[in-house]
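Support request, please re-run this one:
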Amino acid sequence: MAIFSLGAVENLNPNGTFISSSVVLRISNTTTAPLVPITVNVYDAPGSAPTGTVSTLFFTTTFALGAPNSVVTLTIPTVVPAYDIRVSSPAAAGFISDISIEAQGKDAAGNNVPEHTFPFGDWGSVTTV
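Re-run finished. Output below.
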């Protein structure tokens, strides 16, 4: 299984307010074959929390990118001190080259947060099985 992740994204300003209140996640199928299923899991990452804090899942969804060059856009709440977005598929190993993922943090007013802009090159492939 291929899993893409950003790792822990710090989400607290020095004054304790959240940097991003949501993230718009855009996942694109860059091939002519369907990608089924795609799973998105978002965890409250331990990044800013005390050492030893366990990650907890707070958002999950599964869907298909069935059509060639199809795109799914999700808006995910991120009112946590740190978050980790993971996109995975049990599809064949080709999944790694058949998908494009981008994320854009938004503040409470809906404005883009530059430090929470993650183009596809920022996503690491955690594992393939």
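The CA atoms of residues 34 and 59 lie 24 Å apart. The chain has a mean pLDDT of 86.
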